[in-house]
Amino acid sequence: MNIAVIGTGYVGLVSGICYAELGNTVICVDKDPFKISTLQNGGIPIYEPGLEELSAKNVAAGRLSYTSDLQAAVREAELVIIAVGTPPLPSGEADLAYIDAAALEIAEALPAGAIVAVKSTVPVGTNERVRDLIRSRTDAPFSSVSLPEFLREGSAIRDTMEPDRVVIGSESREAAEKVAELHRPLTDKIMITDLRSAELLKYASNAFLATKISLINEIANICEKVGADVTQVAEGMGFDRRIGPAFLQAGIGYGGSCFPKDTRALIQIAGHVEYDFKLLRSVVEVNREQRFNVIRKLETIFGGELRGKTVAVWGLSFKPNTDDVRESPALEIMRHLVDVGVHVRAYDPVATPNFRSAFGDKGVVWCEGALEAAAGADALCLLTEWEEFAGADLRQLQSVMSRPILIDGRNVFREEDLAGTAFIYYSIGRPSLN
Ligand code: NAD
């Protein structure tokens, strides 16, 4: 199939490269000239394990190319995939400006018979809106398909190549079948729905996962008060097949470019039809509160006086194996620390450049290594569970710190890791280790 993918972010780039890997001819388009020149020169503008190699392989095979010329790419395409961002507006609603702009541009070059698929996460009715926008600019017949994306950053290639399911929403059975055929090599769990159900299903999935995270975080908070261990509670819950073990890791809450934005957007979608989504509002509220757990623990340790203390932060990305810092809990935690006069020494294996652009430099020393960040610190806060941190030598760590205080916001360390150290250790929902 000849495919044009509009937007080379985490979703568009991974999908485009994976479709090429399946033997399709793919052209990935972005309006950001820096991204396109990086890609044309063999680089990858995001951090995603394995992606650079997979891109190089498919470029060399002649199946994959990159351009900033959207119309040239669309002109040859049988399938045009829109994978541009849908960031939140201040109200929480999804901003559809990039979707609309892409639709209007696509319309100028869309060949007759093409399929236009929206992979971006979009509010209910957006595929119809895209269809109508394109129709207002061209007489060429085409079909609309909603193709929601479920990949996770950090394991995006595997998620794309071995998806749990592929959902295809369409008004046209023929178009849906063509798109299904494209995905047949990946899975036999292909579900064809109407446009609106596909759109809502994506938000509903993220709302469910966010709910699971907020639920276990509240259970962790209760564990701290009643003397239970959330890891044991979660393990026991997870054995129940109706519950399952995934997304039951207590911590400082979810972040990233999807859960925070999609939960808020779904509250707005419900609000537009005069439905008050009370449960999801609480999920969002619990999540926002949870990151301050780290601050509260620091305040307890230092008797409420944080000013002048040096605090090391390990982990800035919203989760490991990505350089994405959008809505990372570290942003708000560090903002608070800096605001109350803490000297912050921060380290992340890959996300520091993105974090610096989002956060600025005030009050922070950016470090090149985990031990360097910890050097001379009164306390260390682990905010992202990078594998590198789990393997840290805690005796060595203790020796470089001013005081051996460790706040593990992701429950990375176990009792045996701490044995033989003098660490005053706080984690989330595991009071027996504190
Ligand atoms: P992103 O911000 O990383 O990338 C979007 C890209 O689109 C940018 O490179 C931007 O320059 C480009 N773009 C915008 N308008 C354009 C235009 N008119 N022409 C060409 N390029 C254009 O976004 P992302 O994280 O890849 O997310 C894209 C969508 O997929 C969002 O709706 C998001 O909610 C959804 N999604 C994201 C993930 C994820 O893990 N990141 C997972 C599932 C779904």
Automatic annotation (TrEMBL):
Which residues, by range, are in coiled-coil regions?
none
Keywords from the UniProt entry: NAD, Oxidoreductase
Any Pfam family matching the protein: UDPG_MGDP_dh_C
User: What name does this protein carry?
Assistant: UDP-glucose 6-dehydrogenase
**Transcription regulation: is it a keyword of this entry?**
no
Q: Which residues form the active site?
A: C258
User: What is its EC class?
Assistant: oxidoreductase
UDP-glucose/GDP-mannose dehydrogenase C-terminal domain: from which residue to which, for each copy?
A: 312-415
Its Enzyme Commission number(s) read 1.1.1.22
The pathway that the record names for this protein is: Nucleotide-sugar biosynthesis; UDP-alpha-D-glucuronate biosynthesis; UDP-alpha-D-glucuronate from UDP-alpha-D-glucose: step 1/1
| Similarity annotation | Belongs to the UDP-glucose/GDP-mannose dehydrogenase family.
Q: Which GO terms describe its molecular function?
A: NAD binding; UDP-glucose 6-dehydrogenase activity
Which reaction does this enzyme catalyse, per its entry? UDP-alpha-D-glucose + 2 NAD(+) + H2O = UDP-alpha-D-glucuronate + 2 NADH + 3 H(+)
The positions annotated for binding NAD(+) are D30, K35, T86, T121, E153, K261, R326
Residues annotated as binding substrate are F150, L151, R152, E153, K202, F247, L248, Q249, A250, G251, G255, K319
Q: What InterPro entries does UniProt report for this protein, alphabetically? A: 6-PGluconate_DH-like_C_sf, NAD(P)-bd_dom_sf, UDP-Glc/GDP-Man, UDP-Glc/GDP-Man_DH_C, UDP-Glc/GDP-Man_DH_C_sf, UDP-Glc/GDP-Man_DH_dimer, UDP-Glc/GDP-Man_DH_N, UDPglc_DH_bac
Q: Which GO terms describe its biological process?
A: polysaccharide biosynthetic process; UDP-glucuronate biosynthetic process
